[in-house]
Amino acid sequence: MTATATRVLVLNSGSSSVKYQLLDMKPDSAGGSAAGTRLAVGLVERIGEETSRLAHTPLATGGDKRETEGPIADHEAALKAVAAELSADGLGLDSPQLAAIGHRVVHGGLKFTAPTVIDDAVLKEIERLVPVAPLHNPANITGIRTAQALRPDLPQVAVFDTAFHTTMPEHAARYAIDVATADAHRIRRYGFHGTSHAYVSRKTAELLGKDPSEVNVIVLHLGNGASASAVAGGRCVDTSMGLTPLEGLVMGTRSGDIDPAVTFHLKRVAGMSEDDVDVLLNKKSGLVGLCGDNDMREIRRRIDEGDERARLAFDIYIHRLKKYIGAYTAVLGRVDAVAFTAGVGENAAPVRAAAVAGLEEMGLAVDADLNAVRSGEPRLISPEYSRVAVAVVPTDEELEIAQQTYALVNA
Ligand code: ADP
């Protein structure tokens, strides 16, 4: 890496999509921490179909979003198309200013507790974890291999969704099942959305004017996927997702917590196959299963029109959230802040108000006026008297991946 190499390309490779951001990590003019200025952002969707689509926004040049449609056969073709878009703005992958490529990797098991420079052994280990992350790790591996082929000389860094949760104590991470069976099949709670929980808990401490080591935070990451975490002094001590991202909160299309016997029942009594049950719980449950919509905006609109199904779906969603706030208050003993983040957490004021309503005895309250403010900045929404701070803290997983990647290659 040359002294001028301050850019990081962040890649989030899904099974049929690639999201990317190119960030400049040059320290800001005050000489402080890396600014993480976005130079370009984009998305390739429907890879492998006739109607693939690439949307690219060259923020560095202030140019308009460019969209192209047409078949993109595979991840290699997708990354080449992204590279061509970046080159068109003078930001090509061949630039000496590119310091590294940071890859989001969903499952790092227990081995990867921190971002890791990728070599053959690391790739093998990520492959070994495919059985516990069959939907995610294969796409991440393809993204890594493709990027390596394009720039074999460049450091490639894996930033794991599970890493932040590896500090969970055994009593929180283990399921109460036969130990030998669990160990043989690596069955335990790993947790996900780790880069978001890490970023948001740190930002929340900053908002309180404290060091992360001094505060206990409950982070509620409420997007289409949703998870809660209990973070004590900067370390995760519990989180709601488990072996897979199916456990925990009610989500857009996933059930979250459910009696595991429901799955036997569906097979024995309803005659469903394993795959049917998988699809039911991951794709046809949660808000969409309860009321047909998974977008919180649409659900709120229906509630305003008096729709009972939407109301019940909302109430079930909130009830589960409350249970986790209560549980994590007990786990942490002392809570300094509850932080809402991601699409629903950052935007849906009624969700925040309802999740905290009635929890005054636990020191939690929301100020209606502060809660109604729309802003992209971290902010407090609790009244002065509230013992526990309630905050809205926009997440930024790409910035977190870029920062971790840049810090590692500069170490
Ligand atoms: P993911 O990254 O898990 O796909 P996001 O964090 O982007 O999801 O969250 C997407 C969800 O955020 C949408 O499904 C919708 O429910 C919710 N959302 C986005 N904008 C708003 C808004 N203005 N008001 C309420 N909910 C919103």
Structure commentary:
By secondary structure, this protein is α/β, with parallel strands linked by helices. The chain has 15 helices and 14 strands. Strand 13 (379-380) and strand 14 form a beta hairpin. Helix 10 crosses helix 11 (308-332) and helix 11 (308-332) crosses helix 13. The N and C termini lie close together (12 Å). The chain binds adenosine-5'-diphosphate (ADP). Adenosine-5'-diphosphate binds at residues 223-225, 252, 294-297, 342-344, 347-348. Keywords: ATP-binding, Cytoplasm, Kinase, Magnesium, Metal-binding, Nucleotide-binding, Transferase. Its main location: cytoplasm. Homodimer. One of its GO terms (molecular function) is kinase activity.
List keywords for this structure.
411 residues; 37% helix; alpha/beta; kinase; EC 2.7.2.1; nucleotide-binding; transferase; binds adenosine-5'-diphosphate; Nucleotidyltransferase, domain 5; 6-stranded mixed sheet; 2 domains
What's the CATH topology name of the largest domain? Nucleotidyltransferase, domain 5
Gross CATH architecture of the largest domain: 2-Layer Sandwich
CATH class of the largest domain: Alpha Beta
Rg for CA atoms: 22 Å
The succession of helices and strands, N to C, reads EEEEEHEEHHEHHHEEEHHHHHEHHHEEH
> What characterizes the major β-sheet?
8 strands, mixed
Write out the strand line-up for the largest beta sheet, numbering strands in chain order. 5-4-3-2-1-6-8-7
Distance between the termini: 12 Å
What's the number of domains? 2
How many β-strand stretches? 14
Please state the structural category: alpha/beta
What ligand molecules are bound, each kind once?
Answer: adenosine-5'-diphosphate
Site (Transition state stabilizer): 193, 254
Main location: cytoplasm
Pathway: Metabolic intermediate biosynthesis; acetyl-CoA biosynthesis; acetyl-CoA from acetate: step 1/2
Enzyme class: transferase
